[in-house]
Amino acid sequence: MAVSRNPAMFAWQPGPAGHGFIVTENGTALRTPKGHIFTVPSADLAAAIAAELREAELREVGFKKSGFKPNGGKFTDRQAHLTKLALTALDLVAGGDRDQIVTQLADKIQFDSILYQATHPPRLVAAQHRHWQPVIDQLSGFFARPILVTTAMTALPQNPDLTAKIADWLRRQSPHDLVVVGNLVEHSGSLALAMAAVLGWITTAQLVEASLLVEQLHLQIWGEDDEARARLSEIQLEIETVMRFRELCH
User: Fold this and answer.
1) Last residue in a domain, options 62, 94, 126
2) What pLDDT tens digit does each residue of the chain (250 aa) get?
3) What range defines the domain where residue 51 resides?
4) 195 and 157, same structural domain?
5) I need a surface site. Which of 118, 140, 213, 245 has the fewest CB within 10 A?
């Protein structure tokens, strides 16, 4: 496909019969790399993605220049976070092996970072109890199964009934919310925190604080480290972007 010399006009339009909202380029519906029409669940998300793509085009890394175009390909612009999350929902979740994704996500509870807790220093123990324990208790009640916590360094198997109930809950989530859960687990290290965020029990700020609890305390104790601080800032940005994506979906 020839590269157009004119900047692409990215916009959106309602889907047929009220089924979602379609992201368009010069009035034509865009397609994902796997050929699905680029449809999202809300007008707000469609507008945000169109704006993101217009900015990408201005940076000369638009759809055509990056290889992702209406007939397929791959979008590589690192700053188009919302676009990539929406594409993942369409191609890898809705258009992929959803049962495998659910199973893999549910199994993350076995190695959830907030279930493996420290016994010192006292500041960290207190912070764990303040930020993590309410989430653990609330999820235990929600799934009607105990969630085990350990201070040991070895794996602590959770009750298979708990994993099954988590899987049942995940199956009821939309493809976009499954993408949110998966990305939050990746960035926070905790399925429990990810589920609490999707359920609306904790805010974005609370999620960031709970996710970076140990690392932030280490910086306070041992002093600032530019590389570590930059890494934490990157994680915070990723979490905030995923949460913004969730808010725009609803």
Assistant:
1) 94
2) 333 445 568 999 999 987 899 999 999 999 999 999 999 999 999 999 999 998 887 665 444 444 454 434 445 555 689 999 999 999 999 988 899 999 999 999 999 999 999 999 999 999 999 999 999 999 999 999 999 999 998 999 999 999 999 999 999 999 999 999 999 999 999 999 999 999 999 999 999 999 999 999 888 887 778 888 899 999 999 999 999 999 999 9
3) 10-94
4) yes
5) 118
How does DSSP assign 81-143, residue by residue? HHHHHHHHIIIIIITS-HHHHHHHHHHGGGG-GGGB----SHHHHHHHHHHTHHHHHHHHHHH
End residue of a domain, out of 70, 94, 118 = 94
Taking only Cα atoms into account, the Rg of the chain, rounded to an integer number of angstroms, comes to: 20
